[in-house]
Amino acid sequence: MISCSSKYVTGLTGLLIIFLMLTPSAEKIKAQSTISAEKIGSKIDVYIDGRFFTSYKFSEYEKYPFFYPVNGPSGASVTSKRNSNFPHHSSLFFGADFVNGGNYWQEGLERGQILSVNAQIEEKSGSRVVITDECVWVRPDAESPIKDTRRITITSPDDEIYIIDFKISLLPLQDVTIERNNHSLFSGRMDPDLAVINGGKMMNAGGDRGEEETFGVRSPWISYFGERGGRYEGITIMQHPENDWPDAPWFTRDYGFFSPTPIYWPDDKNAGTFIDKGNLIQLSYRVIIHAGNPEEAGISDLYIQFVDE
Fold first, then answer.
1. Could you read off the pLDDT of 204-216 as tens digits, one per residue?
2. C-alpha to C-alpha distance for 306 and 41, rounded to whole angstroms
3. What is the 8-class DSSP label of residue 34?
4. What domains are defined for the chain?
5. DSSP element (H, E) containing 294
6. pLDDT tens, 128-141?
């Protein structure tokens, strides 16, 4: 027969209580999200835990590759495509105007096009999805000024946070001149319901709000969000401090557009931006689709993680 003193049992019981108090309940433990992707024709569909999240579209009939829709935790897209006033805004995209005389931003493929030539799924299922692509900037009767490569990683560290990481390398195939303009580089266009003009909010890392306070201001990130179903939902774009064009000012609009771009604010406003042939430009952006406002979503901490990775 095995006997235990009451003092021993009491101590053991106390340790068990402490262990249970410090151990998260089953309800609080988040299982690792499963991300999956499927290539269908000229698009790649991405799912998070079996729910459709987004599509990477790269048709030869499009101006440039882009993501649409980009669904938030509510299941509705936080971005929009082909607004009536600005039909060249396609959700989440990358392009530029006035590149060696070509337009790789606005409507009209004959004016210039960023053509995907090798979109692939490198990792198609698990804790992340990785998409790679090679794109050539083309237009009729002109030499291609740029070839770019893209590595796009999609993860979900939380049930209410989805992350799309972009690593974009620009290789000038000739000496490149980009005239000063506001149509340039990585950009997002909000769903109208979330735009400032319709009651949404836009805020940068310094707490500046709206177009009036954020336009032309340097900031590591901007969050654009609005109310849906009684709570906030939105999207945050971050620019990495080690980008070859670091700490770019933001071009922002209360109607729903935002983009970190140095092209509108070159060192010499009369000269534009110049890139020598073969001078590789490396750019990195993190896009976070989230429930809640920036504080509730922990955007400041997520930016620190982005920089430290």
1. 999 999 999 999 9
2. 32
3. P
4. 32-308 (2.70.98)
5. helix 294-297
6. 999 999 999 999 99
